[in-house]
């Protein structure tokens, strides 16, 4: 009986498809012409699309287009650069379509979760990021393209390391231990980062900022969602595009150090090192360490298509050599996007992306005594040569008894042969079935497979550390495979003044991870750098591992639009995660939003300068289960190997110890967000203003709690521990200032966010971020009532003129300085961030000026603790020349060998204004080039980080040695600085 029902269902589907196919074939060809309303001339290159169905073509030189059959499509959409988009019903077999002159962003299509909508109908907080100038900027990661371009989106390049990490926060940090990264969705495929993606492959980026827009992605959208659409093929003439650029990178600033004589004087005061007289300066360590970095980037794409089949192929190479020349980043990338209208009722898409990334960094975030390269440039005395004259293959290390100095070239050598490589394949295939003009079904299957390989090798001769280890090497491999299977049913119906859009679907995601690692030492030389040349293979630092997780989800959305005036949208998503306890595994995340377009009301119909005015509001919830292990709620164990090679222990078995305390009620971390916004467009679509207010509250934060020692066998516990608040407002202004022969456009955005940790349950204080080892105290304290990442320490009230000691404030009044006198001394969270872009064009000349800035944030300059601490034999910066030396001296630099503490002495204003990018290009137009088939020849020059206005004394105010951490921000401790870049390149289309 069941078999008969299934068979009947299958036959019914086949019958529907056959019927649709026959009906489609019965309709005659659709032809037409697209013309300008200004003079009636044909518009070439306009895109004409059938709706629904998705087939599209381009108009020829006279504006004509043709479809062999419109199939079941009921409407046609037309877009063209410089004209207002138009959508109208198909009427007859011959159509003349007239487009009004003057483009408007209101008709732009905005991609949203599992769908799209016109910008004028958006009810939520969504920012669109233009990538028009991305080909003229030396950006390595697609994430850098967002920097300063979207209100409410903070993008910080925490390190200047080639291919370095970028931290993205959408409306502040929402999680303490969990991830604060947004969810990236590339061509409908969720991914955890976009390092594999070449920026020139992107055509569109939408940032879903509030919960009412992001909640459709449920448990993965607590930190916002960034939707990325890559370039697709278009019907019409085949196009080949080449983008090539070369970049010279330079350090933006330097820090002067003591010469040999000044160093000897300082050491006599400190009394740690007996430096002989007569030493001369031999090495400028800054010049020896920092060189010009080089970047080269080549990207080639080919696209073509017919009304049924379209494709876009691209590939490229990016090579970046850092200003610290042992650091590099290389990427080979390939992408293929194919779209095929197999039938009028069936469309197939295939997207395949492959990348091969290789990089190598340096030792940073630590002092020169631990191999930190940046600080060793300052801390190495200038009397020292590079090489040891007695042992020519060894770096010099005779520092007169100072055992904690190795110079920067030696520290760079320690990582020269380290390489991290990742091969990543992201592929998806989808089928869209058109049941009726109003009802479609899309099924998508995707795979994201990453293979990682990290190898290290330290030779046994060149460096002091290598000699003590007799050389060492390691090999670490991992493979991660994430499968996604989505099924979505969409219904879109218009009747009279009403429009209803409904969507329902399911999503299944599964991840499998496995890794292995092996370490060895005792190499005879550096000729063979693989582990087969190691005489010792580590018996307790070798092994394999594996883990897996899965999420299954069900979601739905419904939108009602009345006459373009009143729009209401509701979303709901239910997620079940394998990471959480079975009794609390499922989370339900609803949202709703509404908009009222006042400009469509009769009482504003006579306001000629008003094009659009809309009030919108939304409320929603999103979840988070990232940042905890794949088996977070289970009881876990540590395995401790036993030395089987010892006499009498040949058959010893490993010990198994409890690693954590089990959390039987582990639940979802949930963020509730309310958003109110106003959208205004006026003055003939030349001015657009967006304003948003938001309130985000996170409950049941997933956190790692440390219990007092001895309270149980294990003292680590993962639980739902705290609550946190983010609230703020955002402004975005876009204007077309001049629109004649000389064109000038301006885009400005500014964001204000206030963060506060509201509540903690078991553990009320989280201290973290130890800096200089001579102080060895955490400088960050997170506790309720304070923003995340606030600096904690002593208040420094200047230098005592009689003793030269730093005066620390006695807050508790007990007459002595003790840990109880510490307080909050700084806040790394900015009061606001902003970006300003001005674009100018005239007769083929184009100039773009992009400014970016941050105001009101503090930086804890831990580097100064090593550069001005004056506590051992390391060289110091020239600022210590102003140190206190005699009683009665007035200075703000304490005496040598003073008592150093984490204090306001190292807190600096991190506000800055930066000329982030300056680009100039020229479109060469000549009849000879056209006859050669070259449609664009655009040479360009560009400069990045050209000027920075700041009071910060370090090398770069835009740093954080703790990278993407939510709990620790704004600490500069020997961090690789960003560089100034000069670019020369060319764009060619033919």
UniProtKB/TrEMBL annotation:
- The TonB-dependent receptor plug domain sits at 119-225
Q: Transport: present as a keyword of the record?
A: yes
Q: Is Transport tagged as a keyword? A: yes
InterPro entries named in the record? Beta-barrel_TonB, Beta-barrel_TonB_sf, CarboxyPept-like_regulatory, Plug_dom, Plug_dom_sf, TonB-dep_OMP_SusC/RagA, TonB-dep_OMP_SusC/RagA_CS, TonB-dep_rcpt-like
Q: Where is it found, in Gene Ontology cellular component terms?
A: cell outer membrane
Please provide the record's keywords in A-Z order.
Cell outer membrane, Membrane, TonB box, Transmembrane, Transmembrane beta strand, Transport
Topology in membrane? Multi-pass membrane protein
| Predominant location | membrane
From the Swiss-Prot or TrEMBL record, state where the protein is found: Cell outer membrane
Q: Which Pfam families does UniProt cross-reference here?
A: CarboxypepD_reg, Plug, TonB_dep_Rec_b-barrel
TonB-dependent receptor-like beta-barrel domain: residues covered: 292-928
Q: Which Gene3D superfamilies match?
A: Carboxypeptidase-like, regulatory domain, TonB-dependent receptor, beta-barrel domain, TonB-dependent receptor, plug domain
Q: Which family does the record assign? A: Belongs to the TonB-dependent receptor family.
State the name under which the record lists this protein.
SusC/RagA family protein
**Whose protein is this, by species?**
Sphingobacterium corticibacter
